[in-house]
Amino acid sequence: MSRSEQTYDRALLREHLLKTRIAGDVATPREGNLANYRKMVAKDPGYQFGLTLKDWTFAETLEMMARLCGVSPDPRHLRGPDTIDVDLTLDALDAMGARIGLAARRRETVILATGHPDTLMGVYRAVEDALRAAGCVVLVPAAGWSYRVTTPWGPQHREIVYTSKVAALGTDGTLRHTHDPHPMRAALRELREAETGQWPDLVVADHGWAGAAGEAGIETVGFADSNDPALFAGQAEGKIAVTVPLDDGVHPDYYGPLTAYLLGQAGLTG
Q: Which of 52, 59, 76, 136 is least crowded, fewest Cβ atoms below 10 Å from its Cβ?
């Protein structure tokens, strides 16, 4: 078996995900998970990710996260480590890969965006390169669109910044973590108002970028950590097509084998 074939082997990727704690016993603490589930239940805008969700109870949210993400279902487990089911991660990567492969074969129009540019940008850039090579149109709407946000350090400027054709939020040349759905809403609003007929068939994203796209009725596949329940809830409600559970905060290099596997499942290798 060649090195490239090994990269796409499910058993080997499973081992890698567990070793790097992308899945399995993850670093995301249980108390943080539970606190964020309560924030989603309370409809805190920062934890809705741009989705208009039904009224979830905490018990329903915990059950849903155990089923779709693999966290402990035990409500008495209040502190310490939590888990992401590695086989749920792999199954979701298979489903995401199949949808990306379909987009490539159809030469669909796509938007890619991330609220975790520090760790996940390499995944999105590889998907972008593969889709463009397959003849897909990757859109870059609302580049430079900006607004002001309130932070603990005072008001700050934020704008949509593209790394190649992957959208993220930036400030003064620095890409930022964000849950905010407003940038994706602005991007979609520009496409509607341009009257060019361009509209995404597929969005590959996370956080508010994914939630706002799913809420707009666009087929959306994305990544989410165990402390980000909204996209999983969106999947349960049929607004998000695929949510891949993973720790979204490990070293960027650790996502390399995952990226290779995803592209392999899409038929976009070589």
A: 76
Phi, psi of 155 (to 5 degrees): -65, 140
Confidence at 153, pLDDT banded by 50, 70, 90: confident
Task: Enumerate the β-bridge partners of residue 224.
Answer: 245
Asked if 50 contacts 184 with a C-beta cutoff of 8 angstroms, the reply is yes
Contact criterion met (CB below 8 Å) for 216 and 234: no
Report the DSSP pairing between strands 154-163 and 166-171: antiparallel
Nearest Cα residue to 228 out of 256, 208, 213: 208
pTM for the model stands at 0.94
Average pLDDT, the chain: 94
Strands 202-206 and 146-151, by their bridges, are: unpaired
Answer yes or no: is pLDDT of 7 > 70.
no
Query: What would the two tokens of residue 160 be?
Result: 């949509």
pLDDT at 1 over 80: no
Portion of the chain with pLDDT greater than 70, in percent: 97
204 within 8 A of 188, measured Cβ to Cβ: no
Parallel/antiparallel/unpaired status of strands 109-113 and 166-171: parallel
- Phi, psi angle pair for 121, to nearest 5°: -55, -40
Type of residue numbered 7: T
Determine the 3-state secondary structure of 163 from DSSP.
strand
71-107 pLDDT, tens digit per residue, is 999 999 999 999 999 999 999 999 999 999 999 999 9
> CB within 8 A of 174, min separation 6: which ones?
none
Alpha helix ranges (H) inside the chain: 3-7, 10-20, 30-41, 58-68, 86-106, 117-133, 182-194, 207-215, 229-236, 256-265
Cβ neighbours of 146 (radius 10 Å): 15
Report the distance separating Cα 53 and Cα 49, nearest Å: 10
